[in-house]
Each structure stands twice: as structure tokens, then as C-alpha cells.
Amino acid sequence: MLRYAFRLHRWGMLGFGLTAALSTYAQGAAFLKLAGSTPAERAAFVKGVTSLSKQLLYLLPAPTHVDTLAGYVLWRSWGTLPIIVAVWAVASAGGAVRGDEEKLLVDAWLAAAVSRTRLLLTRFAAFGLAAAVVAAAAGLGTLAGAAGVEAIALQRVAGQALALWLFTLAAFAVAYLVAQVPGSIRGAQGAAAGVLLAAYLVNALGRSVDAMASGAWVSPFHWYEVTDVLAPGGHLDTAGCLLSTGLLLAGGGLAVLAFRRRDLRRGLFARPAVPRVRDLPPSPALRRPVARELYRQRWMVATWALATVVFAAFMVAIGRGAVDSMVSIPALRAVLTRGGADPYRAWVDVEWFSIAQLLLAGLAIHMVSAWAADDHEGVLTAELSRPRRRWGIVLERAAAAVVAMALVAACGTLAAWATSEAAGISLDPAGAVRATWLLVPFGLSFAAIGAVASVWWPRAAVGALGIIVFLSYLLSELGPILGWPDWVLNLSAFQLYGTPALSGVSWSGLWTMLVIVLAGFGASAALMERREVAA
Fold first, then answer.
1. Which of 249, 328, 339, 428 is surrounded by the fewest CB atoms within 10 Å?
2. Are 209 and 114 contained in the same domain?
3. Cβ distance 449 to 455 under 8 Å?
4. Residues 299 and 381 grouped into a single domain
5. Cβ contacts of 386 within 8 Å, gap of 6 or more
6. CB contact at 8 A, 205 and 216
7. Most distant CA pair in the chain: distance in Å?
8. Under a CB-based contact definition with an 8 Å cutoff, are residues 475 and 490 in contact?
9. Same domain flag for 200 and 327
10. Residues 234, 315: one domain?
């Protein structure tokens, strides 16, 4: 049974392991080009990164010895890995708890006299083995990126990988426990993601606000960050490792009790169903296809719109301080002032719309998650029983995605505009409009890829699309620095989007994105016609 449970993680292990290895390798390989080789260049690099890190404490921990390759990789790559593996932990826990129950796998195992405790412990052990592979891949990527540049002791890499492994298991334990409460895979993943997001925000506030620094110790993200053994002079924090281990044991123990108490395919605190009587007929708008799909996803779209507004206001508000620290780094100063551009306006045009791309990609992942959940929860079966054309369902999803992404992109731009006016930063109206409407085909390109995955393999759709988004982002960030050819760079949707606010529309990139959108949703419609629902 352990072998089968481990096999269920093979694609997540492969995808996230490859992501971790490429991330650490690429950051190490790019270190010399970013930091320079002369003492003066290295000093300017350290000064600029140190100043910039203070503006990015909401995202990354404080750097340690960034004058060395190991310290830079620890800050730039290992600092973001907890976010990545947390996504994997949430997806894996939701699939293990609710996905397997909806597929009746748990019924078969229990009927074969497998106890609930053994079943849960087996799932934890299988994920632990897969998480060890991902942590080892991150370590191997670090060693490969440092080869020929800087010698890093193997025990330092092993210590950092141990901290990452313990964090991943702790995140899985939390997600597995929380997934016992809702009654569906969509609710399980949403609730687990909300809990881990709250833990991340507590840690981020602890990094940014001195008065909340002591409170950050309640977050497993902080327990991971206090280990900096990879950097010269760093250490493996015993307290952080013990707390991660304790959370793993406590979460696993409570999950066992919760699993024993509840019924299959029911929430932990589920009550008997009570029939509801509607006094008023539903709105006529719900009879319209696109309006109906948007109504079902209204809270998701509203949440992403609100998040986009908050990020837009924050990124523009910190613009002046961030630009003042970045201009000391020659490579970054050249980007912000190219063509005689105002560096503060360039910050908004480049940095904010880069964040907006990530948010639209996240919205695409969330929409694909909802489409995949429709397959498992019986919603798709109910829709097809009306009856409806299968290709019409795909078309409705595509149209709803267009409206949702246009709404979220517009909200973000309006918030950035209002904040920039308050901060005294003048934006180019034409550039802002170009960058905004191009976000729609950019986000749709990921949604189209996810639409294919949600029909072809619903269980793996979210994980696969998340890996594609991250690799695409990594390619656009490090490809130009490492001098990769254009045909490789153009494999990234982020590269196809370009910098329309500064340099205009990349028409070749736009046409390529539109081809991806049409081909993706077209392939999704063709696959929908041929496959069995919930198969």
C-alpha cells in the first residue's frame, strides 16, 4: 500500500522537484553576472540587495551574506521554496483526503480490512518520501549552480534541505488536518490554503513590523527561515526543527482522531441535511450561460480582485523607497532609466505589472481548480444531464474567464493609478491601458492550458498548471541574464507579454498567446466530447 500511495505523488514529486532544482541552479548560475567580479561591483551589489531586501520583507526573509553565492541562493531561491512546496502540500492533502474518497478508493481500502490509522500513516509516509526527493533536488540544484564558482560544504546543503523537508511535512500535516473539516475537495483545498496563507502573513508581518516579530514564532514559515545553515556562518536552528516536527506529530495525531470520528465523504462537523424552501424564484440572469458561471465563481473573482487592489496599492506605495535602493545596482538602474524614462514611473510599469501577471496567473490556476472540482463533485454531470452541448460548457468557461480576468486587471490598474497619484508618480495613460488589456490574453493562455488538463486529467490539473506557471516565470527572469536564445525565452508567457507599458505591444507575443488560447480551449472542447465524465 505504501508503494501505491507513493506512486500517487510521482507527478507532483517530479514537477516540484524539477522546479526546486531549476530554481536553485539558475539563481546560483546567475550570481556572478548579477554581483560582478570586482570588489567595487560586489560592494555595490551587496549594498543594493541589502537596501532592496528591506522593501521585499513581505515576500523574502532578510538576506545573510549575499556577497557569497550560497548566501544569495539562500535568500533568492530557498527563501521562496516554502511558498512553492506549501502549494504542493495543500493540493496533495486535499487529494489524499477528499479526492480518494470521492473516487471510492478509501471505501475499497477499508473494505480490505485496512484500518483508518494505518491508512493515514501510510499517506503521511508516502508524502514524506516524496518531500525528501524534492528537498534533495533543491540541494542538488544548489551544488550544480555553485560548481566552478564557489565550494559549498555538503553538510550545509543537507542541513538546509532538512529544514525544507520538515517544513513541507508540517504544511502537509496542517493541510491534511484542515481537509477533514469540509466535505469536498474544493472546500478542503480552499480551507487549507487559507490557514497556511494566514500563517504566511503572520510571518511576513513579523519580518516587516518590529512589534510583531515575536509573534512570528507561531508560524511554521518562521521556523523554516530561522535556519540559515547554507550561508557561511549560518546554523541549523534546533528550536525551529523541533517545532516543525512537533507540528507534524500533532497535526497527524489530530487528523487520525478526526478521520476516525467522521463519515466518509462528510465533513467533520457535518449536520444532517435540511431541505430548503425558496420563497423567491432565482434571478433570470442565472439562466444566461456566462452569467451563471460567473455567479458560481463570484467569491473567487471578488477575492482575487481585492487581492489585486491591495497589491497594486502596496507596490506603488513602496515605489520611491524601492527605486532609491535599486538605482545603486548598475544592471537595475539601466532597466529603470532606459530611454531616459522616469525611474519611478518605470517601477510601476515594470514591477507592478509583473506582480499583476503573477496574480492573473494565480486566478487562472484557481479557475482551473474550480473546473476540475466540477468533474469530481458531480456538477459537470448535472450540467450535461440538462442536456447541454459539451463544447458549449468549454465555451462558457472561456467566456467567463475573459470577463473575470478583465475585471481583475481593471481593478488593479485603477488602484495603481489612484495610489500613484497620491504618491506623486505620473503614469503614462496609454502605456497603462496597453499593459492592462494585454493581461487578459496573458491570463487566458494559462487558463487554456489548464482547461486541457482539467478535462484530460482533472486530479493533476492544478499541480501541473502551477508548475508550468512557475517554470514560465523562472525562464523569463533568468533566461535573459544567462543569455539563453530567444526561442527558449519565448516559451514563457511572461516573455511573450513583454513590457507593454514601456516598450509597446509585442505583436508576435500577442499572436502567440492568442494561438495558445484558441488551441487550448479548442483541444479542451475536443477532449470533452470524447472522455467519460468523472473518469
1. 339
2. yes
3. no
4. yes
5. none
6. yes
7. 76
8. no
9. no
10. no
Quick: pLDDT tens for 269-304.
766 555 555 556 666 666 777 787 888 788 888 888
Q: What is the pTM of this model?
A: 0.77
Contact 218, 211 (CB under 8 A): no
Nearest to 98 by CA among 319, 265, 232, 307: 265
**CB hemisphere CA count around 503 (13 angstroms):** 14
Cell of 103: 473516487
pLDDT for 457-495, tens place per residue? 777 777 788 888 888 887 887 777 667 788 888 888 888
320, 209: one domain: no
Do residues 230 and 329 both lie within one domain?
no
What domain range is 493 assigned to? 289-535
C-alpha cell at 8: 500517487
The answer to whether residues 372 and 452 touch, using CB atoms and an 8 Å cutoff, is no
Q: Would you say residue 279 lies in a domain? A: no
Give me the residue label for grid cell 457535518.
270
Q: What is the average per-residue pLDDT within 259-263?
A: 89
In a domain, 282, yes or no: no
Query: Taking a C-beta distance cutoff of 8 angstroms, is the pair 51, 165 a contact?
Result: no
8 A C-beta contact, residue 140 and residue 20: no
Give the type of residue at 469: V
- Count of residues for the chain? 535
Q: Do residue 68 and residue 192 come from a single domain? A: yes
Domains identified in the chain, total number? 2
